[in-house]
Amino acid sequence: MPTQPRPLAGSPLRRAIALLVPLAGIISACGADAGVVTLSATPTPTVVTIPPVAPPVTPSTGEPVSADETLSMLADELPAAGLPPIVEPELLVAISLADVVDVDDNKPPREHDEFVAVALTDIERWWGEVFPDVYGEPHEPLEGGVYAGYPERGSPIPGCGTSTTDYLDLQMFVAFYCELGDFMAYDDGDSEDSLLTPLADAFGPAVMGVVLAHEYGHAIQGRIGALDDFLATIVTEQQADCFAGAWTGQAYRGESPLLRLGDADLRSGLLAMLEVRDPVGTNQFEPGGHGSAFDRVGAFQEGFVAGPTRCAELLENPLPLMPNQFRDAVDQGRGGNAPYDCSNDPDPDCSPVTEFLAEDLNDFWQTAVGDDFVALTAIAVDDPADFSCDDMVVLATRVAICASERTVVYDGPEVFELYNDFGDFALGYLYGIGWAEFVQQTLASPLTGEDRALLGDCFTGAWVRDITPDDLGNTPRQGDRDGDGVPDTVTSSPGDLDEAIMIAILVGDTGINDDVVGSPFEKIDNFRTGVLGGLPACEAILAG
Predict the structure, then answer these.
(1) Is residue 482 scored above 60 in pLDDT?
(2) Number of folded domains that form the chain
(3) Do 193 and 232 share a structural domain?
(4) Pick the residue with more confidence: 497 or 38?
(5) Are 230 and 260 a contacting pair, CB within 8 Å?
(6) Is the domain of 310 the same as that of 370?
(7) Range from 122-131, 267-276, 365-374 carrying the lowest mean pLDDT
(8) Direct distance between the N- and C-terminal alpha carbons of the chain, in angstroms, rounded to an integer
(9) Torsion angle, CA of 335/340/341/344, rounded to 10 degrees?
(10) For 196-223, what is each residue's pLDDT tens digit?
């Protein structure tokens, strides 16, 4: 509704930033659900149809490269896992915040103030250039301006359907655009109940640019009449995420005369999408739904790569969305996470995630590849420094393989910590890329280095697609596969895709041009390709 703010995300709950614990905001907005249809899992081909290819050869000898030599190409200069360093964006001009944002004399200085001033100026400049190309008419600048809110503020912030905006309401919304008055506002407080300033302090000021570009996307929707069309909230939010990605992309590519964003800023943008996702279990098709991190990152990436013209198409043809609601009380009670072990689980049929994920991966790949794929075993080690095998190759900072022994080896204590921090699919993603490497061996994949690692991400996504339930809760391989008389039902849970994305960010290359295992942006893009397109989409990558 035009008299309601269009927020980024908001939550009445107390929030605090912990460097490895993502947040989830409870989203509030107004809109009528237009019946957006979720993506349902569909069966993948029973056999991978990639034709046999010759393995790569060593240039000096012309002899085929052995499996361990091929895999070793991934091991050189693997990036250290962890959050990206805070690298200041390159500002090409100096602009005072007071010249761009409505503040008063009580405004506390923030480290991101200068960036916000330049970013907002650039967002307005960019839309002035691209709006005529996208929509065929001149762009109208934001008439009501931008307001920064903070507890110390003495001057009022306009209301959206009310006389003024109370700071606590703004804190709940985090940031919003209001069509009534054509203005934006953002929370600039730094308490533990605020989100943006702690995010910018933790991940870098580029977070502020992504958030404000998202809100300006709603201003664009106001100019084209989309906010009056009673679209589902998720549709307008998806397009705003896409617009934010498109603005980020032009700044990253050096197309802006005002600022330049780098690899750390791009990584921060992805992290920002994680922080403002819908809480796990939220129905994104209800009014106020913004999408899971998987959905929001996907829309951001679509805009980053394809630009604002592609984003303009999303109101009529939205991107596919993955289910985010729990299907049963047991899964909801566990928060979507299976037990890591069954030592304290009262369920007599308890199966730990460390075991059933391995069993399902073996079944999936034996079904897809055929008898040529021999089952693998996963081994947890207490200290990777004390473990070795003749052909061990590290695929990521916490997972390696022993090719001749057909084992996937992972750092038990570290992965258990990731499980506690994020959820069970932290392990699922690491298992997935381990199994995917053996699949590439079986298929004699000619890919090496970064390309090989990124195909592994796609293959991992294809497996996830296969265990994603359809609208009836069924998956393609459901049934009594092991012949024990008990139906085998391995399904992904809400939050699993977001957990995989977080691990991809943590283990990816620092920059897009590092070309070792793939940047977070590239890894997520390939993972999403597998989830949305299944094995045929990954086959296309391998076929070149």
Answers:
(1) yes
(2) 2
(3) yes
(4) 497
(5) no
(6) no
(7) 267-276
(8) 47
(9) -30
(10) 999 999 889 999 999 999 999 999 999 9
- How many residues make up the chain in this entry? 544
Q: Rounded CA gap, 395 and 410, in Å?
A: 10
Strand partners, 235: none
| SS3 sequence of 232-264 | CHHHHHHHHHHHHHHHHHHHHCCCCCCEECCHH
CB 480 within 8 A of CB 487: yes
| Token pair belonging to 395 | 């695929």
**Which residue shows structure tokens 């506002």?**
185
Last residue of a domain, one of 266, 292, 315: 315
Tell me if 12 sits within 8 A of 216, measured CB to CB: no
Q: Kindly state whether residues 299 and 377 are assigned to the same domain.
A: no
| Helical (H) or strand (E) element with 178 | strand 175-178
For residue 179, pLDDT over 90 is answered with: yes
Could you tell me where the beta strands, DSSP code E, fall in 315-398?
Answer: 377-381, 392-396
Instruction: Report yes or no on whether pTM surpasses 0.85.
Output: no
* 232 & 293 share domain: yes
Residues 302 and 414 in one domain: no
Average pLDDT over residues 140-150: 97
Residues 311 and 336 in one domain: no
Where is the domain boundary, 267, 282, 315? Answer: 315
In terms of residue numbers, what domain contains 364?
327-543
